[in-house]
Amino acid sequence: MSSPPEPQALPSAPSLSFAEDLYYAWLADPRSVDGSWRTYFEGLPAAPGAAPAPASFPRRRPDGAAGPQPSAGAGGDAAFQAKVDRLVQAYREYGHLRANLDPLGLVRPAEPFALDAFGLGPADLDRPCADADGRGDRTLRDLVARLEETYCRTLGVELAHMHDQDLRGWLEQRMERTRNRLSLAPDVKKLLLRKIVEAESLEQFLGTKFLGAKRFSVEGAEGFVALLEFLVDRAVGHGVRNVVIGMAHRGRLNVLANVVGKPLRQIFAEFRDNAIVNATGGDVKYHLGHSTDRETPDGVLVHLSLAFNPSHLEWIDTVVQGRVRAKQDRYHDFERVRSLPVLVHGDAAFAGQGIVAEALNMSQLEAYGVGGTIHVIVNNQVGFTTSPRDARSTTYCTGPARMLQIPIIHVNGEDLEAVAQAVLLAADFRQRFHRDVVIDLWAYRRHGHNEGDEPSFTQPVMYRAISKRPTLRQLYAEALEREGSVTRAEVDAMAAEYRARLDAAYQASAQIAVQPGAQEAGGFWAGIKGGAITGPEPETAVAEAVLAQAAAGLTQVPQGFHVHPKLAKVLEARAEMGRGARPLDWATAEALAFATLALEGRRVRLVGQDSRRGTFSHRHAVLYDHQTGTPYSPLAHLREGQGAVEIRDSLLSEAAALGYEYGYSLEMPDALTLWEAQFGDFVNAAQVIIDQFLSSGEAKWNRLSGLALLLPHGMEGQGPEHSSARLERFLELSVDDNWYVVNVTTPAQYFHALRRQVYSPWRKPLVVMSPKSLLRHPKAVSPLGELAEARFRPVIADPVADPSEITRVVLCSGKLYFDLAAAREAQGARHVALIRLEQLYPLHADDILDAIAAFQPGAEMVWAQEEPSNMGAWDYVDLHLSPRLPSRLDLVSRPPSASPASGSATRHKLEQQQLVAEALGDPVPRIHRTDTRAAAHEH
Ligand SMILES: Cc1ncc(C[n+]2csc(CCOP(=O)(O)OP(=O)(O)O)c2C)c(N)n1
Ligand SMILES: [Mg+2]
């Protein structure tokens, strides 16, 4: 099938949108375009003397005027042409419903369009007409044939949801001019066949050598492996040099072996389970990732990574996107065209998991753009045992993607030329428009969900059809043989050659031990490590002169920038703090942490809900011109050549947003990456990212992240959902130095904790129970000197005047300290010492013991927390610290509760007063029971 001839060569090689703009300018006034373009447009095959036929919908025009009205076609009959235009539009919008997509033939295409529904009849077929693009087919019959081929063969493209006419027009032109078909050269066909042979052979080999082992075979969708290979090739042709792939279980081993190039012997060793007992637990083979540099046939090097991922379907999506963003930032890929995220989805997962919609919604946001993600859905028309009718309410599994101005390309996975066209369209669209694109590859699943599963219990009809279906390798090899592109002997040789590789690798695999993927070393990873954290706290102090420079920068705005009158005072106060004229508050210490890192050339990225201003209106890291609304961030303009500082508001998501920053941090071990929750309470909307990635990523995959989580935490009478970041859950997951959990009490401590993320050799996530009331608490301040001299202190001892007076030691953490200190002062309770556990994990028990060593051995010991006894740090402290203390540790807390806090501010106050009094040993009558340990045990 050849494409229609071009009318004549374009005068130069412009971008299509430029040409389109010129075209509309020419329509409005032919003299407005220069001579060669005028000649070109005049030569377009429209009716002589008439303007070229218009699009069947009003296109966006440069001057904003309405599009041209339906005009006479070649036959000079405007009414007829209008009917033709409607027919064209129907093909464009609904043609995909008629495409033959299901290789099993069980999902039938819709009925052909009836000409009479458009007021047309058979007699019209031989009438001359113009198509909607003004390029002209000779007759309606020609036009219909072209539209049938374009939209209704084995490729169906959804674009009716696209109202951006520039994008849509480009797609329509691309598809209609090529009839949506790519004629493949014989060597490309052979390459695709080779991939299919490899895909099938690997699965069959695994199936026989490791009988009954789960491998989540790609069989039934082998075309996917060819698709991915072709996609990488096409992307490289567009200048892409980094491809990061995120995908679930199905076909993963095949992608690892046959696309990403993980050595087969390593994969077989994992099947043999030659595990060596190592410190970390590792992961199952079909979750492991791999990276490699591959050379394309043209000699171009491309870096391919398949991300490690958990079972949780779709939760890898934004992790991959965050990684790609970081690569783009690091390599100054400002157009975001040299690194490409490819996300591979299952049909049930794409339709079902809400994080997909979150990820799609992020795609055009400045904070998150990656220049477009290419999504590929391996649509085997079933999810475990669940049929599409029970898995989604949308026509296609791609329903959620219709929210974007992007094409959704449905393709029959057994027609490899259509698959190749789908890839071409997708890659070209992404590179040109920097938007996502979706390929829905229709296929089937030859076996059950896994290889031990019986699929005919639930899908008997489908599996009868599958059992009769020849494999894609058979079908494609036969087709190529028939057309003479390949001989039977060549196919046999391909298979034999690959089989020999499989056999050799299998032999070699017996001697290989399985180890978790090695963490990267060298380059920006040099000196960075995982594992046990040892030694003293790293140097994080900053010379006063640098602090002064940083502080001065924080308050600078460009000439003519109108600072909000109220913020002018805030900036002035910050300047004073920077000069040491008044103590530092929380926001200024944070800004100084960011600024000093930036001055030292480090990158800082903070994204969270309303983080630019700060939920509690304390940060003001980005200022808005009071007259124009233009944003300006002094942090980003401290000096030439500083590290980039990017502080952005996130979309209203926790799951996708946190996953994204985690991904970013994986690629930026030399930067400070932070994510902030609105209130810490909402972080549980991202629990999967915490459980599956942050806490366990090092143990499972040896992947290191230094992401900092800012989770506003603390009881201030704001109710059950504005009080608790669920400290207890983080502590429950704390083991093997997998992260830091802090609940610090001073701005200086916060400053050092943030800088430690970059200057410690250990790269670990940091969970900050960040404060709300302390942001403005007059006592929660630090002298500038604490930034210039000290370093992070996991424990803050109490420098009481006379240690021998102490009969009661209260251990606490976070903001409660200030309530206790105020009450102690008010009561003149000189017998009470307050020791602050600034870092709960890793717990520095020795420092705590040092802090109490000076006191009398028989002193009472209390753990005081604001949280109910079944929450907060109590269980953790009791388990890990109590056994090491010289005397019994008692608990003072709120009583156990299903909800973190009361809805009544009054009750909160009463509870807090009682709690504080009891912590200090004041035997006040209580409204509630306080022997909460006993109470907890009674239940
Ligand atoms: C978040 C999540 N929920 C449930 C599961 C269990 N699960 C594993 S595979 C699967 C079906 C997936 O179907 P689909 O997305 O169509 O992929 P396929 O297996 O068909 O390739 C389910 C429900 C999971 N892995 N992740
Ligand atoms: Mg499926």
TrEMBL record:
Residues 584-777 form the Transketolase-like pyrimidine-binding domain. Residues 47-57, 893-905 have a biased composition (Low complexity). SMART domains: Transket_pyr. It comes from Anaeromyxobacter dehalogenans (strain ATCC BAA-258 / DSM 21875 / 2CP-1). One of its GO terms (cellular component) is cytosol. It comes from the Bacteria. Its cofactor is thiamine diphosphate. E1 component of the 2-oxoglutarate dehydrogenase (OGDH) complex which catalyzes the decarboxylation of 2-oxoglutarate, the first step in the conversion of 2-oxoglutarate to succinyl-CoA and CO(2). GO terms for biological process: tricarboxylic acid cycle. This is oxoglutarate dehydrogenase (succinyl-transferring). It is an enzyme of class 1 (oxidoreductase).
